[in-house]
């Protein structure tokens, strides 16, 4: 397995230097990358405000105490967004277009949980210029909270 955080320099349309991630030809099966973040109360409120998802299970402690989880939980799609962070900034990296994401939510994420989003390259679809990744998020205890797969279009070198 290869740990990957490589970006390389290309030349943009105006002759400027631009950083892009790995192109389809630079990817290797087994390439891996990860991103870790502790989920704060502010993250949950900001996500609720940005998306309009004001479900009281996320933003109202009195309501959430009466639910199965007995406290507020983070939005599942907030956590799934950490996968996008890895794909768009690390592997393949800058210039990647996220085409498809399958997400399975396995366990709640609470305020204060530290989540590590991990991706691993499973398939290179050279003709389509796409790549398929296994995607997983785990908490600080190693509990898998999310898993799935993503298909992306890796960056292409800037046109000369």
Structure commentary:
The chain has one domain: Hotdog Thioesterase (Thiol Ester Dehydrase, Chain A). It is built from 4 helices and 8 strands, in the order ββββααααββββ. Strand 6 and strand 7 form a beta hairpin.
How much of the polypeptide forms β-strand, as a percent range? 35-45%
Unreliable stretches covering 5 or more consecutive residues = 1-5
Shape: elongated
CATH class: Alpha Beta
Mean pLDDT: 91
Q: What distance lies between the first and last C-alpha atoms, to the nearest angstrom? A: 33 Å
Which fold name corresponds to the CATH topology?
Thiol Ester Dehydrase, Chain A
Q: Can you summarize the main beta sheet? A: 6 strands, mixed
Question: How many domains is the backbone divided into?
Answer: 1
Q: Can you tell me the CATH superfamily?
A: Hotdog Thioesterase
The neighbouring-strand order within the major sheet is 1-4-6-7-8-5
Q: Helix/strand-derived class? A: alpha+beta
State the CATH architecture: Roll
Tell how many strands the DSSP assignment holds: 8
Helix content: 10-25%
Secondary-structure element string: EEEEHHHHEEEE
Helical stretch tally: 4
Taking all Cα atoms into account, the compactness measure Rg is 18 Å
């Amino acid at each position: 397995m290869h740990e990957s955080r490589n970006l390389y320099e290309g030349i943009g349309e105006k002759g400027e230097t631009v950083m892009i991630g790995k192109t389809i030809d630079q990817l290797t099966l087994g390439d891996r990358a990860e991103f870790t973040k502790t989920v704060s109360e502010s993250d949950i409120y900001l996500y609720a405000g940005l998306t309009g998802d004001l479900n009281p299970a996320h933003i109202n402690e009195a309501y959430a105490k009466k639910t199965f989880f007995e406290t507020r939980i983070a939005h599942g799609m907030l956590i799934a967004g950490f996968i996008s962070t890895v794909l768009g900034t690390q592997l393949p990296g800058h210039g990647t277009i996220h085409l498809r994401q399958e997400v399975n939510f396995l366990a709640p994420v609470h305020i204060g949980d530290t989540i590590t989003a991990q991706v691993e390259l499973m398939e290179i679809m050279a003709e389509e210029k796409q790549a398929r990744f296994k995607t997983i998020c785990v908490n600080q205890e190693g509990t898998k909270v999310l898993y799935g797969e993503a298909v992306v279009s890796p960056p292409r070198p800037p046109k000369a």
